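Here comes a specimen:
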Amino acid sequence: MNTIANMKSVVIALGLVMFLGGCRNMQIAQVPASLDNAGFMTVWDVYRHCQVGTNVDTMRTEMQQLARVASTQESAAALPFSLPDFVKRVVSKPAQRLAADPKAMAAACALSTGHAALRAERMELATEMFQAVLRNQSHPEYAYYVDQAKTGLSQVDRAVQFAGYLTDATPVLIPVSSASPAPRHSAPVSFED
């Protein structure tokens, strides 16, 4: 009986060591749960540049940078193991609060880029940016951005229809004559007193 008690103690001790060692090796502390001040200021600069930019290709690159930061923030909040809901709520919220949400910044940049592309008549890029917002902003707290993206897509559709970028009908050929214009048959006019 003494050996069974000793074996239970050894198994429990090994289980505890493995559990604690496993938690330590997950390196949760090294996952970037929040941006440091310098990192946040870099992201903020990218966001501000995107908001006032005029080069849609540069703005697209900046939107992609912001989307990567938002994705990193989101994946840092997702833990690799299952926890009870009350623990997830406590652990998922970082202790320090950011002044701005990187996911919202990426959405706002995508909307700005979409509108700039629409003004520059780059309909494919505008559509890509508005669809990126619809694809990436599914949570209710981003409903404003989703509504704006839907409005942007309808503006793209109207512009495409109005300008005739996409037509279902066959193109109409207008005959143009290559003959020289007919000679005028009129008498010269003279103005004499």
